[in-house]
Amino acid sequence: MPATVQIDVLRESDAARCAELERLLFPEDDPWSERAFTEEVRAGHPYLAARDGELLVGYAGLGFVAGPPHAEAEIHTIGVDPAHQRRGIGRALLRGLLAVADELAATVFLEVRTDNDAARALYEAEGFAVVGLRKRYYRPSGADAHTMRREPKS
């Protein structure tokens, strides 16, 4: 990851930029709105931002669906500006979310498009394994998704 990029907490004021990146990254699959990001941050879900100076270049979010003693979490979203991809920013964001999940020894789930080889390789490198297939999961494109799981780290 470039030395100029810092990971910190996503703020409500970042929601418009997140929605802009969503439209760029996921134009076929109902990208999240500014309001959706604002609501996630207000709800207190762990969301991270990657910033190159003042510019938001990436974001990631996690939600807990069950608490201890058998905690479970799901990766809601990860996105990195195409101009900043392949520099380790997505991996740093993912590791930040996983550190939060590991504090509660949570099993972590996510969905990834079956045709997104780069994302799937990243997830596998970070300990995720495919555990299922969701046909026509993404809308409106109808793309399939793999469900992936990572066991808790102690």
Radius of gyration: 15 Å
**Number of structurally distinct domains:** 1
**Any idea what the CATH superfamily is called?**
Gcn5-related N-acetyltransferase (GNAT)
Main sheet overview: 7 strands, mixed
CATH fold call: Aminopeptidase
How many E-type strands? 7
The proportion of residues forming helix, as a percent range, comes to: 25-40%
Strand proportion:
25-35%
The pLDDT mean sits at 95
Strand order of the largest sheet: 1-2-3-4-5-7-6
CA-based shape: globular
Query: From the helix content, strand content and strand pairing, which structural class follows?
Result: alpha+beta
Q: Which segments are poorly predicted (pLDDT under 50) over 5 or more consecutive residues?
A: none
User: Which CATH-level-2 architecture?
Assistant: 3-Layer(aba) Sandwich
The CATH C-level class name: Alpha Beta
Total number of helices? 4
Distance between the termini: 26 Å
SSE order in H/E notation? EHHEEEHEHEE
Question: Could you characterize the architecture of this molecule?
Answer:
This protein has a single domain, classed as 3-Layer(aba) Sandwich (Aminopeptidase), CATH 3.40.630. Helices cover about 30% and strands about 35% of the residues. The chain has four helices and seven strands. The chain has a seven-stranded mixed beta sheet with strand order 1-2-3-4-5-7-6, sandwiched between helices. Helix 3 (about 90-105) links the parallel strand 4 (about 70-80) and strand 5 (about 105-115). Helix 1 (about 15-25) packs across helix 2. The longest helix has 15 residues, at about 90-105. One of its GO terms (molecular function) is protein-N-terminal-alanine acetyltransferase activity.
